[in-house]
Amino acid sequence: MTMDKPFIGQDAAWQEWLAAIASERMHHAWLLSGGKGLGKRAFARAAAAELVRQPGHPMPDVETHPDIHILDHLPANDDEVKKKAEGKPYQTKRNITVDQVRGMIRRLAIKPTLGDRRAIVIDPADDMEKGAVNALLKALEEPPAGTYFLLVTHQPGRLLPTIRSRCRVLRFAALGPEQLDSVIRRDAPQADAAARAAAIAAAQGSPGVALDIVEHDLGGIHALMMRILQRGDPDFALRGALAEEMGGRPARDRQLAALELARAVLVQQLRDAPRRRQLGIIEAYGALTTLATQAPTYNFDAGLLIMEIGGLLASAAMPREAAR
């Protein structure tokens, strides 16, 4: 009997994982690959728990089980460590560090504690420092018996080919409208039918984006972003409206959600755009990705940030507006 999955969709990937666990020669390294917000984080933790679960025992607590090691972004400094301990929102470091990976490798010298399997989750592997990547490569080349790696990646192209070549790929597909609706009903039950419909239309199959739209009330911002992409914004009026919709002192989470939403709408535009427009969309997407990596740790002015987002969307509009 397997655990109740904490995610919706990705049944094909889950069945592939269960079949691998049951096989006699399970691959030691797995790449969980797909767009951001598809449920890879929850999947990785569920997969790790299923891997180390002992027959006849309840499902383990992923956060405390001695044979599950999760490497993700640490708090940015001592003050943020205190916030995390108090259950408050906290800022994280930009990267997964080489010290984190080396610490994990030292643990591999000891056999698993409660069984014969150990799970290492790196989330996301895209954000490892160069030294961390090199250290991980050595572990992947000579993995200890019973050790299995799950590398969450939003952009597998950012990983070294030598890392990718040692991993079996689990691909994560976009969810359908009914699956997205189920996610929203489960995780944001306060959302009414109109809010759910708007989130589903904007999310392009990503439950993470859909939940951000609902939870951070981004419906109006999404509508303005789409108008900018359709019309451009030569007089800055739509960018002004975007800043007003965002609010004078928006929470950091809402700013980050707006960044992810802007990237999502560009991906949506790229799929249907004529070739002459694609370069502008790709350039804007790259700039937004840079902003998204900087925003969690940089102290950007909220008003300037949303104007920058609007400007990048305007640069990708048809007809293309020169970036300002």
UniProtKB/TrEMBL annotation:
Q: Which GO terms describe its cellular component?
A: DNA polymerase III complex
Q: Name one GO biological process term.
A: DNA-templated DNA replication
Provide the protein name. DNA polymerase III subunit delta
Note the InterPro entries from the entry: DNA_Rep/Repair_Clamp_Loader, P-loop_NTPase
What's one Pfam family the UniProt record gives for this protein? DNA_pol3_delta2
Domain of life according to the entry: Bacteria
Read off the Gene3D superfamilies from this record: P-loop containing nucleotide triphosphate hydrolases
